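Changelog-adjacent note: as of this version, every example in the card shows the full chain rather than a window. The one below runs 400 residues end to end.
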Amino acid sequence: MKRRDRILKAFRFEETKRVPMDLGGMRSTSISCFQYAALREHLGLPKSLPLIYDDFQMLAIPEPDVLDTLDCDVVFLDGKYSNAFDERPNFKYYGFNGRLDAMVADPDSYTVLDSGTIIKDGKSMPPASTVFDEPHGGNAFDLDNLYRVDLEDFRRKMEQSRITPQQLENLAKMCEDARKATDRAIFLNGYELPLDFIGGIANGTMLSILDPDHIKEYHDIKAEYYAENMEKIITVVRGNIDLVLTGNQDLGTQNQTMISPDAIKEMWMPYFKRVNDAAHGAWSKAKTFLHSCGAIYDVIDQIIDAKFDILNPVQWTAGGHSYKEWKDKARKKLVLWGGGVDSQHLLPLGSVEDIRAQVREVVEYMKKDGGFVFCNIHNLTAEVVPEKISAIYDEASKVE
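Full-length structure tokens:
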């Protein structure tokens, strides 16, 4: 069995002897660069500095030998990088002010302040931090000035976002080369529709109540161009990828959806569906993927109706619904990608033995009737030591 066959069986809701597994198929299933070198050492692999392909979340590219050792079944491809190939020639050394020996795309893009804080693209990483952040976490809070988008200006900007023939040609070639280079499933991401909250979560959630028509107009413009790009992309890569990230927006908090399920149904899902319809229309076998964190159990049926095939990160620890309830609601209708272990509490704080026990319990239930790909709920963060990382994949692989 080729590794991607496990993934394809999951898409068909067929069980496999060993559950399909992912590390780094997209940025929210990846690993912190602060643990990557230590993980390689723990796995007995040659020393190698992390290749940081996301220096906002400080994520390392999981290289093929790591995927081999953990027996993972997916590679990512985003039009710029892919772990189907050796990307080291595209990176240069940077030491992060003595904190981390790593390889980055552009060492000159970082500035170190006297305090030791590192600045890049307006975001900062203080000495005690392991990720970059921006003021207010990117969500300014100004109740006196409700922000709206200049929709005419926004449409002009979206006109500039049309994918070019040269970009399509390059992407098609990259996907073709990746298909020849690996027997893993190829996960295309980087072209998804991000239906963000206008002006940040505080502003955007208020706007959803006070001016829902503005949100719908904004989403309508955005979806128009993303759907057009998606149709062109899927047309040229069909047959050389296995799934595609089509939607990205966190819609849940730790306890409930950020806005009401009815508001999500009205203002978010029709626009996601437009992009999914474009993907499926270009290739009936396209498998569409939504990334949405938080307590979104109450909108799983909406996600299915919006023609998503796959949901991630399956944050069953939020909102008071068990992983069994998530599985039962999605069973044979929606592939659950993630949810393999409690990432906020047990994984960073629990013992290896307790972590193994939970992984086994979750996988035994979630793999029934197929439709499940194992990985952590979101990234493996800098707090998660290699012994725990290797344990979750080892334990998941033993469940039959």
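Structural remarks: The radius of gyration is 21 Å.
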